[in-house]
Amino acid sequence: MLQVFVTENYEDMSVKAAEEIAKQLIEKPNSVLGLATGSTPLGLYEKLIQQKLDFQAVKTFNLDEYVGLAPDHEQSYSYYMWHHFFSKINIEKSNVNIPPGIFTDEQAVTEDYENRIHEAGGIDIQVLGIGHNGHIGFNEPNSSLNACTHIVQLAQQTIQANARFFSSMEEVPKRAITMGMGSILKARKIILLASGEEKAEAINKTLNGNIDTSFPASFLQLHPNVTLIVDKAAAEVPVTPRNLSNRL
Ligand code: F6R
User: Fold this and answer.
1) 34 CA distance to ligand 1 centroid (A)?
2) Which residues contact 112 (CB under 8 A, 6 or more apart)?
3) Number of Cβ within a 10 Å radius of residue 144
4) Would you please indicate which residues are annotated as catalytic (active-site) residues?
5) Nearest 5°: CA angle at 54, between 50 and 55?
6) Whether the model pTM is above 0.90
């Protein structure tokens, strides 16, 4: 079931999300959290740091990573997580799990990540952001989606957009490793965050669209416990030629 919680702005979205995580950690200090990168959860991480919550027994699993980037590469998701969050809380390094960007055996690395989530007892709360095209993690729109952790080829558009962060085109990652929609849907609770009018259409489709691999976030409709925490701008149903007639 999808529940929607609409906040006034980005700040309040982050506060509300931090409250949900805090509640979880008080109920279960050794919770397993699924985490995302990107701009959306930065406010949440900031709030969690300010609250000085106890992360001593918490385990985390990140959604995704670029293939080919070492953890200390400034564009890696590992660097992002340590820079913005993990280095500022009392988490045990051994409890942090981020899909590795450097590996030799594709099958072994993806299976190992799934096994680690399973051995940790599964994810209690999975935090998600959403792409304009409905992507979740690196699960991009496609005619078929892979359920488990897997390697994806990045779209040419994404590679080009990322090029500005690298000194040469050769360095720009062409592939990523991501938890699959199946791995994500196994989480006991999912919190999807979105802010700003540019996410409004994606939020509308997540809630009301057909369940379809061409819009991966629509699969969240199949999960029994999803809360969308979105600000007013992202909750506003955009006026498109398709729904304009309903409004007149
Ligand atoms: C990042 C991730 C991505 C982002 C999405 C939204 O780990 O999984 O799916 O959540 O691209 O990104 P932002 O928050 O930057 O709009």
Assistant:
1) 13
2) none
3) 5
4) 64, 133, 135, 140
5) 100
6) yes
